[in-house]
């Protein structure tokens, strides 16, 4: 391959824009419990902000040439690939960016943009120079194997890269396990299975040891698939790689069944999980319908964010009440859940309740004198709201012998995330993997790849680790749920007014939305100081 000297125009930042705040320090991701970080210090993630006309801002991602300015470039081998040679404009224009905000007024500022994902005309790695590694961390999610498969096949088919290894068992696998060689043949069928063929884990993030491993093995592209915790880990790995001056692209691919990662449109596997949840809700509904005063309770995943419960409820239309962590509820007294259940049973003779696992945790903790515990990554371990709620309902109706109920509790928790991804998630995973490897080949690093308003973009790690995505209960999507279930909102008029006021302040300061709507399809909203989606 022909090598050309110093950084050519196509890969560099756009010319016309003024540099706003290049390399403004941003606090390094805080180490979680058990996570050991190296002293990245002044190498901590920097903001790369570029300004343009009419309030245009590009929040750019780091590039290897930021700290290795002399790196040579090479023509992108895709230009000789017969499959892609027919594409009219295959290479992404270096000036292309993706807007964060798509609802605008004629007077709106152009706002924040991110670098568009896709193949660049020139690359910073020769095919036979690349040693790529892939790791999966955190909980399972449908589509993990598809992403792994498409990274391996994409690197091989598009860039002629033949050296790809898997890291076994999450972050700790970097320093405690042997690597697994990955070839298009060995990964050929893995997308037909749930789980991750690489294995995964929580805890065990030791930045220094992980980067030692990258250095010792000569790994120069590392693809890190995982949730918010994983992306924080990826961010500190990037910082350490940069501190050591290594030519190694660190790429994050966001994974979360809970859809709790900020900025991104929607996480892969979410659709599959919502679809799988329908089976449990349907069973609960059928059981309830067939009994006298039948109640079906279904607990779904959602540690801090109730997206799965909310979407599963909306999709089903058989649900009478949906409880999520973002919307507090109470059991006893006027307007409480128990009163509502009684009324619904009197009216309909049966009902189905969907509860997200993180809902009502404060209520349970109060009634159980419970001490907080955490998993290996420092995440709070939750109490079983499904069992607790079922018991509370049974206790309530026991006091009313003239009102016999039949309650069935269904807990499909792990079933909805252990399945293989559905067709649309498979396509989504394929595009994510491709966007990720195009970015790495083009020399970008320290970024997460994701669709924003339907277009794939590269976003800096800090953007997705600084807050969690939550359902915004003052947005229209939650209102749609309340409308479809006809459940009480459990909030007083005063609570609602206060929340709207808080949200207005966040709208002003945190988002540029003109009006919010909570859906994983478009990003924006806010709750408890967090950005949420549409
Ligand atoms: N602040 C952090 N700094 C470094 N590493 C971290 C940090 N937080 C979490 N990690 C590491 O990231 C990995 C995954 O984290 P975690 O168990 O929280 O899952 P996750 O990636 O958030 O996925 P999910 O919550 O969707 O299952 C763990 O190995 C953990 O040690
Ligand atoms: O039992 P594990 O593997 O820790 O995972 C449970 C958690 O992982 C998630 O699926 C993703 O964060 C949560 O919904 C759930 O609380
Ligand atoms: Mg997480």
UniProtKB/TrEMBL annotation:
Q: Which HAMAP family match?
A: Phosphofructokinase_II_X (MF_01981)
State the family it belongs to: Belongs to the phosphofructokinase type A (PFKA) family. PPi-dependent PFK group II subfamily. Atypical ATP-dependent clade 'X' sub-subfamily.
The protein's gene is named PFK
Does the entry feature the keyword Zinc-finger, yes or no?
no
Report the EC code(s) recorded for this entry: 2.7.1.11
Q: Where in the cell is it found?
A: Cytoplasm
Q: Which residues bind substrate?
A: 256-258, 301-303, 357, 414-417
Q: Where is the active site?
A: 258 (proton acceptor)
Q: What is this protein called?
A: ATP-dependent 6-phosphofructokinase
What regulates the activity here? Allosterically activated by AMP.
Assembly behavior: Homotetramer.
The organism of origin for this protein? Panicum virgatum
Q: Which GO terms describe its molecular function?
A: 6-phosphofructokinase activity; ATP binding; metal ion binding
